[in-house]
TrEMBL record:
It comes from Herbiconiux oxytropis. One of its GO terms (molecular function) is oxidoreductase activity, acting on the aldehyde or oxo group of donors, NAD or NADP as acceptor. Residues 19-443 form the Aldehyde dehydrogenase domain. Keywords: Oxidoreductase. InterPro entries: Ald_DH/histidinol_DH, Ald_DH_C, Ald_DH_N, Aldehyde_DH_dom, Aldehyde_DH_Superfamily. Signal peptide: none annotated. This is Aldehyde dehydrogenase family protein.
């Protein structure tokens, strides 16, 4: 058996945690526990699950100092950032409690029996029900908000699904601590609603486990592709919701560059370097006009990035991959590295950098994500050229447009860039994803399913499936579909009916 090791990226100190990676028997036990817990979660009902989510949030906050300390020792992200992340994590859980109590997520519909131009219609009632046990693959860069207690787990529990989380090897001690905290909070009511498994083999076995009905993943394209293929190759394929990286393009209009080059440079530099550039929403590619105004913006941006102190990467492997990626960006024909510290960063750290490209067509390598604090600036001559460059951008989570009031500049480029993303920001930087009803965190490939979001109220939809009841007696119907007053919005015979109506 392989021992689970925790490594401090700031010091390189590695320590065994006293337990081994999950074997086949341990994985089977975790999946079975998720099945049992799912039945109990459903029996709790919406309001019972809402209270359970709030109990989990309270339990995490009660151990705040211990959890933040463990996460900092494995990520070097610092207590300020990690305290904020724990607050966000607790907020996500409480947010889904509100979603449950409100109830519209069920999409409850009643069509009473009646005559139609097509003939008699039977009594039909439809709503969403839990899909079953869910596999969650934790992200490296958010040891709380996108890991064991993160948004995927919160949404699955809210839906009524038990969860098995594959811990990320970058923060196993944090994962174990949080997993035990959730277990203590949930076992008295529903059993082990969330199990945590460790190791590569457990990750492969998890997506292949017959009882698992859906999987979610945030991470590299290579890892995500491999798991997506396993999910599709099962005797009964399951949905795989993957966020596999994003370049998050930025488009600066000529008018914006002329009006505020310096402030745009400062804002972009902060967004690129935030958290060591280890955000899935880091702006990795900026389209900036050619000419003196664009020159000023790019020069200031390079200077701002050069002044940023190098930070430890989440792992030494990520630091090495960043160095290799930066070297490959600089080797592209027509590209040149504009910034970078002259002093060699300490082992395991990454220093911000900026690569400028001037050419007719954007080489594919410059439109690929490099995980870390680097961005590419592509210079455009006019709207036609900008739209041509934008045409090489792959699908992304976000696009940021920087315009002036009444700005009609680069319309073709604006339309092209907006068609490639799931969230469009105006005069704001993308590093930050609010947990809200209207949020969308997803997009075209490399998101594996552009229909759904992984953040916000509607992320619960990934773990639900529709069922219709035809001519069912009232005793067979869920409470939400029975006639009479109910506590959630419903569409009855085509008319939206609100609670109390």
């Amino acid at each position: 058996m392989t021992s689970v090791i925790s490594t401090d990226p700031a010091t390189g100190l590695a320590r065994p945690l006293g337990f081994d990676e999950t074997d086949a028997a341990g994985l089977a036990d975790a999946v079975a526990a998720a099945e049992r817990a799912g039945e109990r979660l459903v029996s709790l009902g919406r309001f019972g699950r809402a209270a359970l989510l709030e109990t989990i949030a309270d339990a995490l906050e009660a151990r705040r100092d211990e959890i933040v300390g463990a996460a900092d020792s494995e990520t070097a992200l610092g207590p300020v950032r990690l305290n904020g992340e724990l607050t966000r994590t607790a907020y996500q859980l409480r947010f889904f409690a509100e979603v449950l109590r409100e109830g519209s997520y069920l999409e409850a519909v009643i069509d009473h029996a009646g005559d139609t131009p097509m003939g008699p219609r039977p009594d039909l009632r439809r709503m969403l029900v839990p899909i079953g046990p869910v596999a969650v693959y934790a992200a490296s860069n958010f040891p709380l908000a996108f890991s064991v207690p993160g948004g995927d787990t919160a949404a699955a529990l809210a839906a009524g699904c038990g969860v098995v989380v594959k811990a990320h090897p970058a923060h196993p001690a944090t994962s174990a601590l949080v997993g035990s905290t959730i277990a203590d909070a949930t076992e008295p009511l529903v059993g082990r609603a969330v199990s945590v498994v460790f190791g590569y083999e457990a990750g492969i076995g998890l997506v292949e486990a017959p009882a698992i009905r859906a999987a979610s993943f945030t991470g590299s394209p290579g890892g995500g592709r491999a798991l997506a293929e396993l999910a599709a190759a099962r005797p009964e394929p399951i949905p795989f919701y993957g966020e596999l990286g994003s370049i998050n393009p930025v488009l600066v209009s000529p008018a914006a560059a002329a009006a505020r080059a310096s402030s745009l440079a400062a804002g972009l530099a902060g967004s690129i370097a935030l958290g060591g550039g280890q955000f899935c929403t880091k702006p990795g590619l900026a389209f900036v006009p050619a000419g003196p105004d664009g020159d000023e913006l790019v020069a200031e941006l390079a200077a701002q990035l050069t002044s940023v102190v190098p930070k430890p990467a989440l792992t030494t492997g990520m630091a090495a991959a960043y160095a290799s990626g930066l070297e490959s960006l600089g080797a592209v024909s027509g590209a040149r590295v504009l910034s970078g510290r002259t002093d060699a960063p300490a082992p395991g750290t990454t220093a911000p950098s900026l690569v400028e490209f001037e050419g007719d067509d954007l080489p594919p390598r410059l439109a690929e994500e490099c995980f870390g604090p680097v961005a590419v600036v592509a210079r455009y001559r006019d709207d036609e050229h900008a739209a041509r460059l934008v045409g090489s951008v792959p699908g992304s989570l976000t696009a940021s447009l920087f315009l002036e009031p009444g700005d009609s500049g680069v319309p073709a480029a604006r339309a092209a860039i907006s068609a490639r993303v799931g969230r469009i920001l105006y005069d704001q930087y993308p590093t930050g994803v609010a947990v809200a009803w209207a949020q969308n965190h997803g997009g075209p490939w490399p998101s594996t399913d552009s229909v759904h979001t992984s953040v916000g109220a509607t992320s619960i939809r990934r773990y639900l499936r529709p069922v219709a009841w035809q001519n069912a007696p009232a005793s067979e119907l869920p409470a939400e579909l029975r006639d009479g007053p109910v506590d959630l919005p419903r569409r009855v015979d085509g008319v939206l009916v609100l609670p109390g109506s």
